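quick one, 218 residues, struct below
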Amino acid sequence: MQKVIVMMGAPGAGKGTQARRLAERLGYPQISTGDILREMAAAETPLGREIRARQAAGRLVSDDVLAEVILTRTSRPDCASGYILDGFPRTLNQARMLERLSGQQGKDVILLRVVVSEDSLMKRLTGRRTCSQCGEIYNVYLRPPQHEGFCDLDGAPLEQRSDDNAESVTTRLRAYEESTAPLIDFYRTSGRLFEINGELPVDEVFRSVMNVVTGKRK
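---
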């Protein structure tokens, strides 16, 4: 049966990186709610301004907005064989919506939760810097640029996302934990939740991901 592969994990856990690699390997589209919402936030519309304000404060957007985004995106032809969700669902209500949607689409849901300690998450997020020109990502703690504040590739200034400060990160992590606890229990009870050690090197994490997707995990 065709699959819906859900990548779960706290902000900064690396689920986006794994989702991209998985999309390349399987030929499935990667649907990142974070990327879609950031595009919407850039628009000078009432909804865009609302999303932008929530992101800056480290708060999550409403289920109604996310549900509409997912429904619209997964209705496209490139999702017919299967797709990868990055950042959705985050709540029990969203999970139930996905259950209905995947059932209507005739697809099975596989959930992979990338687990990383809170200390590691804080370093990954507060230390993250992005090139303003090419988008290359650095980390002042884990992967600093050769020249502080500037990209190694093109020399452009590095930028920090407005929600990557310590206060916002703490708020985001607490909101994530509180909202996803019932969700994790729901999928664990159904036997469809697989936990991946996200502290391992990226290639090892991906091997674990592929073992689950291909049914090789014991």
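The CA atoms of residues 124 and 142 lie 8 Å apart.
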